[in-house]
Amino acid sequence: MSPYAVPALYAVAIWWFSTGVIILLDHLPRRTFPWSMGGATLVLGLALWGIGASAGDASETGVFTAFTAALLVWGWQEIGYYMGFVSGPRPRACPPGTRGFERFRAAAATSLWHEAAIIAGAAAILGLTWDEPNRFALWTYLVLWGMNLSARLNMFLGVRNLNAEFLPDHLGYLGCYLTKKPMNLLFPFSVSIATVIVALLGRAALAEESLAFEVVGFTILTTLMALATLEHWFLMLPLPSAALWQWSLPGRGAPAPVTLTKPEPAEIGPTRDAA
């Protein structure tokens, strides 16, 4: 089998499965959230230990460990935000009629502590991998962070597919910060820059001078970056991309129809304080 096949397939499988698990946990009754967050925090500790232990391991196993651990750290960030434990100083809908920069400021206030936690996570991984040969945990985390931020900005400015069915009911207030539009000015730059990065990472994976662990690491990063770029296209193309994770919506069946305004902010649904 090609030396690129196993790392690529591993990246696809863990990306798909981990995303589905997070969606599933976020849609369980809210009384389960403390247990999920507690379990995720234990996993976070193990993941940070794994990153530190693998940083000096310049082997293929070390790369797989680093990538998986970085993905688990990112999973903690996502669970903390979407369950409401780490959000921002104003986790509420924007006031009626809010437009322009004021709307952006209100949106930022819903996730400010989340962004600070992401920066803290990056700093922790940087410290654990500092001056070590295996820094693929750091590169993985930065790819996830950068592409997540890009996707959120694009959804704020306007995309065709918001996939609103994946937003938990208790976060319905975020609907006013999302816009349904056929295109926005940022999107072409986002996918173009992402595509260039995919090409650069792919070239590093194919380089003859790359060591065996670097081939694995750059193949995983290339695949992850390509998947994140594909997710961006899913925001715009008329494709049923939500079907990839329909299994992770327990007991909901087919998603309820959502009324969205064009190009005004999209009201996704009512906020529920209890599940």
UniProtKB/TrEMBL annotation:
Lineage of the organism: Bacteria, Pseudomonadati, Pseudomonadota, Alphaproteobacteria, Hyphomicrobiales
Organism of provenance: Methylobacterium planeticum
NCBIfam families: photo_alph_chp2
Alphabetic keyword roster: Membrane, Transmembrane, Transmembrane helix
Protein name: DUF3623 domain-containing protein
InterPro entries membership: Photo_alph_chp2 (IPR017496)
Bilayer-spanning residue ranges: 6-25, 32-51, 63-85, 106-130, 185-205, 211-230
Superkingdom of the source species: Bacteria
Region described as Disordered: spans on this chain: 256-275
